[in-house]
Hints:
This protein is mainly alpha-helical. It is built from 4 helices and 3 strands, in the order E-H-H-E-E-H-H.
Amino acid sequence: MPTETPESVSVDTALPPIPAKRYFTIGEVSELCGVKAHVLRYWEQEFSQLKPVKRSGNRRYYQHHEVLLIRKIRHLLYDEGFTISGARNRLDEAAIQDQENAIAAEQARALLIELRAEIEATLGVLRG
């Protein structure tokens, strides 16, 4: 009986594209993210960022950004080997970094506006 080498084992980890929809059911998200529905419900308890809308009959509806978050959680846990706690910390760090990047971008934007005003004033003096 031939043994399988790592080269002969093909694992398809590619996830399907996310359709352009506003809301997704837990079954759809389960298929899109490659995790079972009970895992999604568990992750809701463990990751405060994950808050699907609940409608009649306590049915969950996930938005596009939550599907992306679930894929990120899945990657951290399954591909990177993080624990739940480690993945939670990594997501918190990423959120802080995103916030810092947004502040830096806003400061850069304000500086550019100020520089543009100075350049326009200088051009006005040169033309005038």
